[in-house]
Automatic annotation (TrEMBL), chain A:
Membrane topology reported for the UniProt record: Multi-pass membrane protein
Coiled coil (UniProt feature): none
Subcellular location, record wording: Cell membrane
Protein name (record): ATP-binding cassette, subfamily B
InterPro entries tied to this protein: AAA+_ATPase (IPR003593), ABC1_TM_dom (IPR011527), ABC1_TM_sf (IPR036640), ABC_transporter-like_ATP-bd (IPR003439), ABC_transporter-like_CS (IPR017871), P-loop_NTPase (IPR027417), Type_1_exporter (IPR039421)
Organism: Edaphobacillus lindanitolerans
A molecular function (GO) term: ABC-type oligopeptide transporter activity
Keyword field contains Transmembrane helix: yes
Gene Ontology CC terms, in alphabetical order: plasma membrane
Highest taxon of source: Bacteria
PANTHER family, alphabetized: ATP-BINDING CASSETTE SUB-FAMILY B MEMBER 10, MITOCHONDRIAL, ATP-DEPENDENT PERMEASE MDL1, MITOCHONDRIAL
Keyword set includes Transcription: no
Domain named ABC transporter: residues: 353-587
Domain ABC transmembrane type-1: 34-319
UniProtKB/TrEMBL annotation, chain B:
SMART domains reported for this sequence: AAA
Keywords per UniProt: ATP-binding, Cell membrane, Membrane, Nucleotide-binding, Transmembrane, Transmembrane helix, Transport
Membrane topology per record: Multi-pass membrane protein
Domain ABC transmembrane type-1, residue spans: 19-303
InterPro entries membership: AAA+_ATPase (IPR003593), ABC1_TM_dom (IPR011527), ABC1_TM_sf (IPR036640), ABC_transporter-like_ATP-bd (IPR003439), ABC_transporter-like_CS (IPR017871), P-loop_NTPase (IPR027417), Type_1_exporter (IPR039421)
CDD domains: ABC_6TM_TmrB_like (cd18541)
Originating organism: Edaphobacillus lindanitolerans
Chain segments annotated as transmembrane: 20-39, 59-77, 135-154, 160-178, 248-268, 280-301
Listed name of the protein: ATP-binding cassette, subfamily B
Pfam families assigned: ABC_membrane (PF00664), ABC_tran (PF00005)
Amino acid sequence: MEKQEKQPVLSNREQWQVLKRLMGYIRPHTKAAVFALVLLGLMVLGNVLGPVLIKIFIDDYLTPGTFPAGPLWSLGAAYLIILVLNTVFGYVQLLKFQEIALKIVRQIRIDAFSKVQRLGMRFFDRTPAGGIVSRVTNDTEAILEMFVDVLVGFLQSGFLIAGVYVAMFILNVRLALITLLLLPFIFLIMAVYRKYSSGFYQDLRERLSQLNGKIAESLNGMGMVQAFRQEKRLRKEFGEINEKHYEAGMRNIRLDGLLLRPAVDLVYALGIILLLSYFGITSFSSPVEVGVIYAFVTYIDRFFEPINQVMQRLSIFQQAIVSAQRVFVLMDDPELEPAQPADGSSEIQEGKIEFRDVSFAYDGKNDVLKHITFTANPGETVALVGHTGSGKSSIINLLMRFYEFGRGDILVDGKPIREYPKGELRQKMGLVLQDPFLFYGDIESNIRLFNESVTPADVRAAAEFVQADPFIRKLPDGYRQKVTERGTTFSGGQRQLIAFARTMAADPKILVLDEATANIDTETEAAIQEGLARMRKGRTTIAIAHRLSTIQDAELILVLHQGEIVERGSHRELLAKKGLYYNMYRLQNGILGDEAG
Amino acid sequence: MKVFMQLGWFFKERKKQYIFGILMLIVVAVLQLLPPRIIGFVVDEIRLGELTPGGLGKWLLVLAGAALGMYVLRYYWRIMIFGSSVLLGRQMRERLFRHFTEQSPSFYQQRRVGDLMAHATNDLRAVQMTAGQGVLTLVDSLTTGGAVILAMAFTISWKLTLIALLPMPFMAVLTSWYGRMLHERFRGAQEAFSDLNDKTQESISGIKVIKTFGQEEEDIEDFRRLSADVVDKNVRVAKVDALFDPTISLIVGISFFLSVAFGSRFIVAGEMSVGDLVAFTAYLGLLVWPMLAFGFLFNIVERGRASYGRIMDLLAVEPEVRDVPGAIDRKPGGDLSFDVREFRFPGDGRTALKDVRFELRRGETLGIVGRTGSGKTAILKLLLREFDGYEGLISYGGIPIGDYRKERLREAIGYVPQDHFLFSATIRENIAFTDIDAPIGDVRRAARLAQIDGDILGFADGYETVVGERGVSLSGGQKQRISIARALLMDPELLILDDSLSAVDARTEEAILRSLKAERQGETTIITSHRMSAIQHAHQIIVMDGGTVAEKGTHDELMALRGQYYEMYELQQLEALVEQGGDS
């Protein structure tokens, strides 16, 4: 029971490509980045100059024992000024880099989210919502971490190391060359650490996610586990995963202990040994300036701090590249929503809908709709009835352009539906879903739904129109009543009414209704029926009806069975046929005999 | 610091590791003092021209020895202290998990899985951090800090030490002030992030509505706004966060300046040497970390204490249903008698069951029908002993079920719940749930009885197909049949099917019922169902309504009664007809 999402292993080339694509996001921030880089350069310069000043002081004044007031004051002042400027530069530079990183990640997020909005329903059918959310938020967060901690850290360390070396070369070329000997050791440690840590670290993360996955699954399935008294086995399995996680943790501690700070500190000691040997040996033949020793000791000190930091961040880097890769895969997903012309001028005037011999399969193999043909004249209601899986919802899915269809044609006002611009379709066709989805916000925002042109008065008018106003006004905060996640504080009927009002606020020409199957409290039932009747007036309506009583006045009723229209006609005609519709009707009205009519 | 006391039991358990680890830390703190001191000596000897090759060699050897020693010690204290903290995490996690497995359903009804998860992840991490990082920062800041200051004061100059340390308290004060600011701003940033997360979640769940109203652009705009808010809140964090490094360098820089300025005066006055000064400044560099660590310590400890408290509170919850002392350690069997005068679910004022009585002889089948919420499931939950607090008596084989050990009672019952739950594992593992090593022949026999064998063989990996969140998705009917096979594998004396045929079609249902009847001769079965066809052949049928028995009898008796049962039965006959798309 421990099969978990394995992380893809990226080759160096793929990693490089992902990194390059990430770097492309820096372009709009070139100016800010250059500014921050300049500050960073100045800061490094200051960092390097400080020890030089102290060196001058030690060698020119302290060792000979001469203390002229003037030069000393200026030396001291210079040191303090550099110190303060450095602090300011350091601060601004750090902040700038973080800001740039944050803005880059914001752009990546917006790009990913916008892409998701343009994907077709097929994509959402095959991709769990949790996965999409985690691409847009968590994976991008990992990218942020990389920009802030890794890249900026690399940059700062690189600059500082370069600066330190330049200064050392200026002070004493031979000694600087000797200190270059330290670099291979550091690169070696880095290479070894990187080699093992990426595997170890990833292993640790996978173990942790296994562990947490196991806890989550066990908590969700605890009823089952207890009913079958498998607690012991589960604890054993958990214990094993827990142990593996512990071992992975220990492996990481050992690796970090062997190769991180302790190892870098060891190289540091080597550096000091090199320095002292050099000065010591030189001193046997010629005098040595003590200030230079001081400066070099300080430089070696400063040289190692950034190395320690960079090493610790190496493992984050790999993780972030994997995350970035996942985000980019989402951004490149080809499953786009059905295309509509962007600039077409076609307008829906009448609201006449025609299905002409439409057949459709979600998977390309099993047709869920077979040769569907019908016409809904302007202002008329066409009701779709049938059992679950009969194809009612698929008709609506095609009409709403959630899915692209291949065979047959759908015409609106005599023109193929594909020729209308998306905006026109969305504006003129209103869909009321079976399970009305409410968004976090308040009632007014849910009725208006981002549409700024809808005034509070329009909202109220729409609510009144569908009979939602009375219940809304009874709420403590009225139209400002908060709607929490999914609107669970409202009853099914109330949510339905709000969704009606939302549709009416948009005032569509064509109404597509997917009637609620959920139990609706008797209190709102009457209001809903009344609201529905009013909404349909003057609008072409395609309605899925679960309760046949609500569509008795429809001009045309289509009875679907396994994707085919098996009966069609008015309520009266269909009852007279004594077929499927007749039986459904009897069933719903609890009429057992043959006395329906 | 109270949390260190609370974790005392663990420190005692790992006494050896902690004592050795701390000793090593102390030795490292002392060894660390050597390099700066040696640099100082060498500088002085060079300046005075007293350095000899032998002397230099000696110093370098000492340096190399100290460095190697520190390397080894630094490695081992990490193993000792950090290793112990990882072990603590493992132990606490194990305890929590065991605790979870012992809790009754009411525990899970009152809590959200997400909350429980938070205890097992975030809180646990904070406690682990306290036992590792917390101990380290405490010991290290005291020993290194103390050792460095002592070395500066006693081997170089206590006056200069005082002067150089003057700015240091500012660093502690400033960083702890930043820390608090950061904490508060960080919360803001996290809230903004969680808003963004919610927004994304909501947009994706409501994607159909958004598409319907053509609100994609507006929704993206809203997302853009929230992303900008995330940036703003994080910049607020960065504004404080970016203060740390510059502040530290500023204060350390001032310290350096003071040391050099005043140190020079002492040198001129003959109170110390140039080498002393070089060593002194190197010591100052060593002081930065302990100062910072002290600031971190408070954060770590504070979080650890809160988290440890939360975990302990959770661990203190007693399971609701427990075995009575001296409970019967035998698998029950025989006739079943159910007599409950009244039962309410804990924390729910409404009566769930009222005056429900029935007797079921071994080998009989009982059918229970009724609308949702009529009390069908409550009866089963009491039989399974998920709840104890009812008025009345339920006995199995003439002995109250409360007298058996819970585990033994459940050994006799094969339960197929309404909301079938499959684990992320192979189909075989899901069916062989009670006996993971069951031979594949037994697994297949159970699957055949549940009419799912054919479906399973149709999958690419057959019985080794992984199901659940990361595996293939099964239809509701397939999941139900796997759940049934799972219960059948254990060959229970009492099989309970809680509306577990709802998602299979009529023909499959009939086949399952037929095979159950043939295979389970002499065993007891209880079936609840919305569908009459599932129970109409039962020896006894009870019709539940509003938590009480409305009608009781055999199918024929109930049909003759022409009451609720009759009505439901007739309607469903019609429904079956409609489902098949037929006309009368």
